[in-house]
Design goal:
The protein is α+β, with helices and mostly antiparallel strands and about 100 residues long. It has a single domain, classed as 2-Layer Sandwich (Alpha-Beta Plaits), CATH 3.30.70.120. Helices cover about 35% and strands about 40% of the residues. The chain is built from 3 helices and 4 strands. Strands 2-3-1-4 form a 4-stranded antiparallel beta sheet. β2 and β3 form a beta hairpin. The longest helix has 13 residues. The N and C termini lie close together (about 10 Å).
């Protein structure tokens, strides 16, 4: 079973570095860094805005706990966003490829 997860980082280099590490450790089989996005959120009773890079991770469910622990240990934010969900549908060929990578 495949899952997809998202986090955000303030620096593109951090997003690329974390993504690469998770691929190298075979905890994720694909990492994608999106162009800067504009985020609006509440932090310490203040409304904050800023530019961030979205890191999308594709991984096998069996790697979720290890991936999450590694991601949170590498992430520079005090309380990083980490949201993931199971993929309800995936092609057989893609699933086979993902299994070979993880």
């Amino acid at each position: 079973m495949i899952a997809v997860g998202w986090t955000t980082l303030s620096k593109e280099s951090d997003a690329m570095g974390i993504g690469r590490t998770l691929i190298e450790k075979q905890l994720a089989f694909c990492a994608q860094v999106s162009s800067p996005i504009q985020s609006i959120y509440r932090w310490n009773d203040q409304i904050e805005t800023g530019s961030e890079y979205r890191l999308t991770l594709k991984f096998l469910i069996r790697n979720r706990e290890s991936l999450q622990a590694e991601l949170l240990s590498l992430h520079p934010y005090e309380n990083p966003q980490w949201i993931w969900c199971r993929a309800d549908g995936v092609s057989d060929a893609y699933l086979d490829w993902a299994r070979d990578q993880s």
